[in-house]
Design brief:
Strand 3 and strand 4 form a beta hairpin. Strands 1-2-3-4-5-7-6 form a 7-stranded mixed sheet, with helices on both faces. Helix 1 packs antiparallel against helix 2. The protein is an alpha+beta fold. It has 5 helices and 7 strands. It starts with 6 loop residues before the first strand and ends with a strand.
Length: about 170
């Protein structure tokens, strides 16, 4: 037996208001960590670029038309992922994040797997994502789930672009 609560993957919106608050917290942690890893650490959300602050302030508006998947431990969001609406038969997976206190439990894998199911149900032919090259663990996870490195669609240095057929 384990004393750790089961983690469920759910689609958002559709959850209680606390889920929106939890999603904003997860997005803030994701963006703050990413800025720090890029060598551009900021003291708080107010120091983030505008496009990221908008996501944190109002995730529902920022991801309108997209699907947000949340990993919940009880009623507490502990992981998130965004699947963009299809463009030319492709969706993009973005903002994959697991609360550090919940890592090592397969949450990111479950989120990405759920995103692939969602994409298939939506009639998408391929899913793509981008990941910073220093996130070796994330790249290994994506490769285990069938993603392969592909030509970049983003000009940012050190960004690895990957894609997988659905």
């Amino acid at each position: 037996m384990t004393d750790q609560p089961e983690v469920a993957i759910v689609r958002w919106p559709g959850q209680a208001a606390s889920a929106q608050d939890g999603l904003a917290d997860l997005l803030a942690a994701y963006h703050l960590q990413t800025q720090a890893e890029k060598g551009e650490a900021v003291a708080g959300v107010g120091g983030l670029p505008d496009r990221y602050r908008v996501e944190i302030a109002d995730p529902q508006a920022a991801f309108e038309g997209d699907s947000v998947l949340l990993a919940l431990s009880g009623d507490t969001p502990v992981g998130c992922l965004v699947v963009t609406a299809s463009v030319d038969g492709r969706s993009e997976v973005k903002r994959v994040w697991t609360d550090p206190a919940f890592r090592g439990r397969g949450i990111a894998s479950s989120l990405v797997s759920a995103a692939l199911v969602h994409a298939a149900e939506s009639g998408v032919s391929a899913v793509r994502l981008s990941v910073w090259k220093w996130r070796a663990g994330a790249i290994a996870l994506y490769e285990r789930l069938g993603f392969t490195v592909t030509e970049s669609w983003d000009e940012r240095d050190q960004l690895v672009c990957m894609e997988r057929a659905v």
